[in-house]
UniProtKB/TrEMBL annotation:
Gene3D superfamilies: PPM-type phosphatase domain. It is found in: Mitochondrion matrix. Its cofactor is Mn(2+). One of its GO terms (cellular component) is mitochondrial matrix. This is protein-serine/threonine phosphatase. It comes from Culter alburnus. Pfam families: PP2C. It is an enzyme of class 3 (hydrolase). InterPro entries: PP2C, PP2C_BS, PPM-type-like_dom_sf, PPM-type_phosphatase-like_dom. Residues 94-334 form the PPM-type phosphatase domain. Its EC number is 3.1.3.16. One of its GO terms (molecular function) is protein serine/threonine phosphatase activity. Transmembrane segments: none annotated.
């Protein structure tokens, strides 16, 4: 069990005191310009900021998604027009990551954050088992496979499904080169989130690493754990000739070995129903209510409830502090 990683992205402004600042028009020349000629039903624009109620007061975002008239935030103009709602710019600088090794000999967790295209952000978390090879491979290759899929596919859920399967196949081909049977037992969870145009959030996952969205202060699950306790997952395992056995602490395992029913890798169990096909979800963000996205490994989920994770993060000053507080608290309690 991993007890070591949390990755989160603040969706909105992250600061305790809300302080005024001016928008630098040159900082985001193609993406964050407001203009008088832009029309969204019920919303009035002026040359520098957004006027939601026509009162003349600037309306912008605070750290909990509440409209506030003391600060100004850059607005993504084209998607705001397309979706008919103001969409604030989300910066990769507002992402915090932490990874603690816990009681393991080796840290097999990997995470990534990057900008895939001018309008698609990428967040990924991989929790390896049986060795670091699978998590390392995903860390090295998943991003590029998604980039390649984006060139031929616009549906982000289809992009993630295709990329996961491609990475799994590529990993199998690489491990077979070594002719080492033990490498057929390495694997990893994969939880990947794509954010397009600052509003369309698509998450794909295999395994038991989670993605949570904090909406109105409440934890909203974006993933379901792939474990043998799920009836649909157990049915597939049994239909494929596998079996589910419980260990001494009551944890269900596929063929007595693996605590998850989907993963990248674990090729010795592919014939028994362990698959790399991700389950995906699509969510349109509500920037007036959504505060942050958080990705966590099972070590954190085993200690904390989803709501406890969100409550702790909401008390922190910034994403980096939040990630470290979560990881450190789990390590202390574990």
């Amino acid at each position: 069990m991993s007890v070591s990683a949390v990755s989160l992205s603040r969706l909105l402004r992250c600061s305790l005191p809300v302080v005024g600042r001016s928008v630098n028009a040159n900082a985001h020349p193609a993406r964050c310009v407001c203009a008088r000629e832009t029309i969204i039903p019920g919303v009035r624009w002026n040359s520098t900021r957004l006027d939601m109620d026509g009162s003349g007061r600037p309306a912008t975002w605070d750290s909990f998604g509440i409209w506030d008239n003391r600060i100004e935030e850059p607005i993504l103009l084209p998607p705001s027009i397309r979706y008919g709602t103001p969409i604030p710019h989300i910066s990769l600088s507002k992402v915090g990551c932490a990874s603690h090794i816990g009681r393991r000999r080796d840290n097999e967790d990997r995470y990534q954050v990057s900008e895939l295209t001018h309008n698609v952000l990428y967040f990924a978390l991989f929790d390896g088992h049986g060795g670091p090879q699978a998590a390392d491979f995903c860390h090295k290759h998943m991003e590029q496979h998604i980039r390649d899929c984006l060139e031929v596919e616009t549906d982000l859920q289809a992009v993630l499904s295709r990329a996961f399967l491609q990475v799994d196949a590529a990993l199998a081909a690489e491990l077979q080169i070594y002719g080492n049977a033990s490498l057929m037992m390495v694997g990893t969870t994969a939880t990947v989130a794509l954010l397009r145009d600052g509003i369309e959030l698509v998450v794909g996952s295999v395994g038991d690493s989670r993605a949570l969205l904090c909406r109105k202060g409440k934890a909203r699950k974006l993933t379901d754990d792939h474990t043998p306790e799920r009836k649909d997952e157990k049915h597939r395992i049994r239909q494929s000739g596998g079996f589910v056995a419980w260990n001494s602490v009551g944890q269900a395992n596929v063929n007595g070995r693996l605590a998850m029913t989907r993963s990248i890798g674990d090729f010795d169990l592919k014939k028994n129903g362990v698959i790399a096909e991700p389950e995906t979800t699509r969510t349109l963000l509500q920037h007036a209510h959504d505060s942050f996205l958080v990705l966590t490994t099972d070590g954190i989920n085993f200690i904390m409830t989803n709501q406890e994770i969100c409550d702790i993060i909401n008390q922190c000053h910034d994403p980096t502090e939040a990630a470290n507080v979560i990881a450190e608290q789990v390590q202390n309690e574990g």
